[in-house]
Amino acid sequence: MELKLAKIDHNVESNTITLEEIIKAAQSEKFFYFAQENKEKDLQKVLQNFIDKNRFAKLSKVSYGLDEKDFVYELHVI
């Protein structure tokens, strides 16, 4: 499964990351920001993967503008 990361700059294309890369990067506490184009169902699978491995993880929507379409998904893994 590949997920799109949130853009850092409007002029740059979004990068993608796989579940395996997320697990490898999250050996310690880590934040991941995902683009709104991702399916929430796929993000829930990533969240459940960490919960199944007895790691605490929280998924939330972070708004960055007044429009309800201006948000990114934040995954916090502890």
Query: What is the average of the pLDDT values?
Result: 93
**Beta strand count:** 5
Q: What is the helix content? A: 25-40%
> Helical element count?
2
Largest sheet: 3 strands, antiparallel
Order of helices and strands: EEHEHEE
Structural class: alpha+beta
Which blocks of ≥5 consecutive residues have pLDDT under 50?
none
What's the arrangement of strands in the largest beta sheet?
3-5-4
Task: Identify the quaternary structure here.
Answer: single chain
Q: Can you walk me through this structure?
A:
The chain is α+β, with helices and mostly antiparallel strands. The chain contains two helices and five strands. The protein has helices spanning 19-25, 40-52; strands at 2-4, 16-18, 30-34, 57-63, 71-77. A three-stranded antiparallel sheet has the order 3-5-4, with helices on one face. A two-stranded antiparallel ribbon has the order 1-2. The chain is globular and about 35 Å long.
